[in-house]
Amino acid sequence: MTKRIWSNWTRIISLSLMVAITSTSHAALPFFGDEEVPTLAPMLEKTTPAVVSISVEGTQKIRQRVPDLFRYFYGPNSPREQVQEKPFTGLGSGVIIDAEKGYIVTNAHVVDNADEITVLLSDGRELEAKKLGEDKDTDIALLQVKADNIVDVKLADSDDLRVGDFVVAIGNPFGIGQTVTSGIVSALSRSSALGINALENYIQTDAAINRGNSGGALVNLKGELVGINTAIVAPTGGNVGIGFAIPSNMMKNLVDQLIQFGEVRRGLLGITGGNVDSGLAEAMELSVSKGAYVSQVSPDSAADKGGLKAGDVIVSLNGRAVSSFSELRAKIATLGAGAEVEIGIIREGEEKTVSVVLDDSNESNVEAQDIHPAFQGATFADGETESGEAGVEVTELAAGSYADRLGLEQGDVIIGINRNRINNVAELRRYLTDFDRGVLALNVRRGGSSLYVVIR
Fold it and tell me: Which GO terms describe its biological process (predicted)?
């Protein structure tokens, strides 16, 4: 009986896959006897030439603390650490998205610190690549090659993906050469709980992804790009069926900015909040159990000017459903400064839509209270310490203000919060946007001294 049930399920799955492939490809299927055999070969023959292997060479700086014994012998002015440069090589994958201009997308971590980047095409040609820009917070990098007769891949609308859609991963795992694996979309909008990157809104798939697949393509059964393969959960060091890809829409927004400006000009809404869950939905008598709850709107921010208010629940962005605050944050941040967005909200039981023009989160001189109420009276800007460490400088401070009473002083440079390194105003803002509650311990450099300012 068990064998019969298993046989029937196998037949159903095979027929479902055949229907899915037949509906997305008009190429003739090969025959085995009198039966059609499903195959992805026609689609892959068109798509795989757009996926490349990437090899890099470079040097990385390794910092080592100088033992206290040596510092004792050489005096107090001896260096606290030694910096050594070590050569390295690496492998990854990439996707050609514009054959005419030679644009290739990969992960930022694949080409990080690379002095030489070599692209290997599926036809065996090796090309030297130039890095045009990158965004480490989302792990996207844009390369360019000069070559004729190369093929690009068509981009799909990744917002149309559904859990259960068939997908195919293409890349260069372990450096063994181009490899194709298949699976389904296991989940959508995987975000901050993973801790892989600062901005996360991943497609999860069970298509086998391994080391070296980073930067490769995740395509649908039409051969259209739906994502850039980025990371895996690998407690054993290999594939366990949990892989993550950056959605193609998110990638395209970032690449367009890199092409136009040479950098990512991150969008900023100007709110703090959290996820809507069943408890909050019940307490506020909401008709939804998912979304982004707005707990505070910064004065004169994009959200304030657009009409958002504390207590609003954001349920959609540009007509697409929003399931969490992390998803909203990632999408807003990658849309780019100056973008006009339509935000669907629920306010006091009524559904409304507001139009907002996003601010620039990379603005380096800001009123500090826009970042956190405890900083009222201070002005922050990107700066550095006397020893050259990057951080956030207190450029102005009003006497008697809240920030003044906390113990901050003009000229202080904040280099960390709660043991997290902070290099600039944008990083400070992003960290505090995700911070819900609790104590904040600011690591501050004041002249040649180091101290902590605690906010409770």
Answer: protein quality control for misfolded or incompletely synthesized proteins
- The kind and range of the H/E element at 253 are helix 248-261
Measured distance CA(392)–CA(383) in Å, rounded: 5
| 114-127 pLDDT tens trace | 999 999 999 899 99
Q: Is 115 a catalytic residue?
A: no
233 annotated to a ligand binding site: yes
Q: Which residue numbers in the chain have pLDDT < 50? A: 1-32, 71
Among 327, 288, 320, 90, which Cα is nearest to 194's? 327
Q: What is the pTM of this model?
A: 0.71
Is 237 exposed, middle or buried, given 0-12, 13-18 or 19+ CB atoms closer than 10 A?
exposed
Indicate left, alpha or beta for 25 from its phi (over 0: left) and psi (-120 to 50: alpha): beta
Quickly list DSSP for 114-174.
Answer: EEEEEEE-TTS-EEEEEEEEEETTTTEEEEE---SS----PBP-GGG--TT-EEEEEE-GG
Report pLDDT for 41.
92
> What are the structure tokens assigned to 169, written together?
């991963």
Catalytic annotation on 123?
Answer: no
